[in-house]
């Protein structure tokens, strides 16, 4: 692991001539996503923004929309080709996914063939280079956190974290009563949160691809709450997405939720891996888990006239005259999942 990390750093310093640019912009994408400056390989951010809605390894099993990227990498490496051939295969696939071309038949059976999404070729190339050159395995805290999942969670927790640089330690804070709560309650809550997130994510991504950012606002405005409600019905739970800086006043956090948000903000800022907070009252379980921003969110929640275009801004202001959900950067707590279910 350490050797790979050192190698990765060396590659960033020596191998990646673009790494020193200040800003990357997807020119052809209607979403026009700015990728924030960093000395990371630009392919990493593009992959997280464009592919991880469906290929993120940290999405819980039942909420997955596609195979984890590491599984794709392994399958494509099995072909035994060169680096160039690997990159060309990924380009060929994303340029026109089809049943005939698919190598991952098991994944096709489970998820259906990947939809064609009009991603700019240059970005796909950078993503493919990144996948080939870097270790993109799931963070090692993940295995521990979700697979074993039960009992003692104060484990090593020194994983790199999926945001690279996050996850310097393990969260020490426990919700009241969490010590007595069976780990199963936090797993149930995570399952509800991540399946709702997956539904929202998939539909939002599709809306952005098809209608652009401004068109997708309409999706959020009309569909986001309906979709959250229907997931509530499906899971027989109350699933809410609330914020301290709400766009829709109906999503404003209550006093209890504001406390949780404030605490999660501290933890995220300090770089901890976050465990959900589980509180038990008579007969019911209250579950809280942070919702954090990535680059994709900033086109609607970032800084006006920077990531949020004036067109997007005027669409937002006309629908949400008291919008407070602007001015975010990446890896910030945008709100929380607040979920209540029966014991
Ligand atoms: C909307 C969901 C979605 C998004 C976004 C998405 N994929 Fe996929 N992808 C899938 C699904 C589902 C499969 C598995 C079925 C298949 O192989 O067609 C898949 C499979 C793949 C495969 C293996 C194909 C094969 O069977 O040989 C590659 C390579 C791939 N994706 C690359 C990417 C890259 C690169 C991105 C980002 C630029 C991306 N995908 C974004 C849904 C998605
Ligand atoms: C296309 C624009 C768009 C994008 C992209 C977008 N949002 Fe939103 N977001 C909205 C709109 C519009 C609402 C208000 C929805 C409503 O009326 O219920 C909203 C509401 C929310 C809420 C509920 C609290 C509130 O402020 O009303 C959260 C939490 C949230 N967004 C998080 C995110 C995160 C995290 C991302 C990125 C993964 C993201 N959003 C991406 C437009 C967007």
Description:
It is built from 11 helices and 8 strands. The protein has 343 residues and is of the alpha+beta class. It has 2 domains: 149 residues, no CATH class; 160 residues, no CATH class. Strands 4-8-7-6 form a 4-stranded antiparallel sheet. The longest helix has 53 residues. The radius of gyration is 20 Å and the shape is globular. The termini are far apart. The site of one heme C has 28 residues, from helix 2, helix 4, helix 5, helix 6 and helix 8. The site of one heme C has 25 residues, from helix 8, helix 10 and strand 8.
Strand content: 5-15%
Main sheet makeup: 4 strands, antiparallel
Per DSSP E runs of 2 or more residues, the count of β-strands stands at 8
Bound molecule kinds, no repeats: heme C
What would you report as the Rg, rounded to the nearest angstrom? 20 Å
Strand order of the largest sheet: 4-8-7-6
Q: What structural category do the secondary elements indicate?
A: alpha+beta
Parts with pLDDT < 50 across at least 5 consecutive residues: 1-38, 145-180
From N to C, what is the helix and strand string?
HEEHHHHHHEHEHEEEHHE
Whole-number tally of structural domains: 2
Helix content, binned percent: 40-55%
For the residues shown, what is the average pLDDT? 76
Termini separation comes to: 41 Å
What is the number of helical segments per DSSP (H or I, 4+ residues)? 11
